[in-house]
TrEMBL record:
GO molecular function: DNA binding; DNA-binding transcription factor activity
Domain HTH gntR-type span(s) in chain numbering: 8-75
Source organism: Lachnotalea glycerini
Keywords, sorted A to Z: DNA-binding, Transcription, Transcription regulation
Protein name: DNA-binding GntR family transcriptional regulator
Stored SUPFAM superfamilies: GntR ligand-binding domain-like (SSF48008), Winged helix' DNA-binding domain (SSF46785)
Residue ranges of coiled coil: none
InterPro entries for the chain: GntR_C (IPR011711), TF_FadR/GntR_C (IPR008920), Tscrpt_reg_HTH_GntR (IPR000524), WH-like_DNA-bd_sf (IPR036388), WH_DNA-bd_sf (IPR036390)
Length: 216
C-alpha cells in the first residue's frame, strides 16, 4: 500500500513538473517528447512517466504521435472560441446557483489575488495569465464541485498553451469590480461582469466563427 501511494505521488509530481514546463514555454510546439527523454530529465522510472503522459493526453494537453512520442496540443482559434463559450456558461451558471456559498473570507482571498496581479509587470504576460487562472479557480473552488472544477482547470490549461504561443495575456481589469459586487451580494451584476470578463478572451476571429455557425 505504501509503495502504491509513493508511485501515485511520484506520478503527480512528474505530471505537475511537466505541465509547469509546458506552461512556461520550455518546449516548443514542435518538440517531440519521448518517454526516455522525460525519464532522464525528471530522473524517474518509466511507470510514473507513462501515467503522467496518459493523464496529459486524456486532458488534451498532449497528443500522442504513434511510434514517435508526444507533442503539445496546439488548439485552433475555433477550439479556443468553444472553450471560452464553455467557460462562460459553466462559471456563470455556478455563480448564479451557488452564490450563497461565497462568504467574506473567500472575497478577501479573491481581492488579494487581484492585488497581486496589479503588482505584476505589464510585460509579464505569463505572470498575469497565471493570476487570471488563479482568480477563476479560486472563485470556482468555493462551490465545492470537484468534477466541474477539474473541467474548468483543463479548459484553462488549454487556453494557457494558446496564449503562451501567441504571447498574449489576460486583463483582470474587471476582476476587482466583480469582487466588489460579490461583496455587495448583487449577484445579477456580478454575473454580467463575470461573463464579460471571460468572453473578453474571445479571439478576433470569434465573430466570424459565430456568424458561420448561425442560421441564414
Amino acid at each position: 500500500m505504501c509503495e502504491k501511494n509513493s508511485d501515485t505521488s511520484l506520478k503527480q509530481q512528474v505530471h505537475d513538473a511537466l505541465i509547469s514546463d509546458i506552461i512556461k514555454g520550455v518546449y516548443s510546439g514542435e518538440t517531440i517528447l519521448t518517454e526516455k527523454f522525460l525519464m532522464e530529465k525528471y530522473n524517474v522510472s518509466r511507470a510514473p512517466i507513462r501515467e503522467a503522459l496518459t493523464q496529459l493526453t486524456t486532458t488534451q494537453i498532449l497528443i500522442s504521435i504513434p511510434r514517435q512520442g508526444y507533442k503539445i496540443f496546439q488548439p485552433s482559434a475555433e477550439e479556443i472560441y468553444e472553450i471560452v463559450k464553455f467557460r462562460s456558461s459553466l462559471e456563470c451558471s455556478f455563480l448564479h446557483n451557488f452564490s450563497f456559498c461565497i462568504v467574506q473570507d473567500w472575497i478577501n482571498e479573491l481581492r488579494s489575488i487581484c492585488e497581486e496581479y496589479m503588482s505584476c509587470g505589464a510585460d509579464n504576460f505569463i505572470g498575469r495569465w497565471h493570476y487570471n487562472c488563479m482568480f477563476h479557480l479560486k472563485l470556482f473552488s468555493i462551490y465545492g464541485n470537484r468534477y466541474a472544477y477539474k473541467q474548468l482547470q483543463d479548459a484553462l490549461n488549454i487556453q494557457t498553451i494558446y496564449f503562451i504561443q501567441k504571447k498574449q495575456y489576460a486583463s483582470m481589469d474587471l476582476h476587482m469590480a466583480l469582487v466588489d459586487y460579490l461583496e455587495k451580494k448583487d449577484i445579477a451584476i456580478a454575473e454580467t461582469i463575470l461573463k464579460a470578463d471571460i468572453e473578453n478572451l474571445l479571439i478576433p476571429s470569434a465573430s466570424s466563427i459565430d456568424s458561420s455557425n448561425s442560421p441564414n
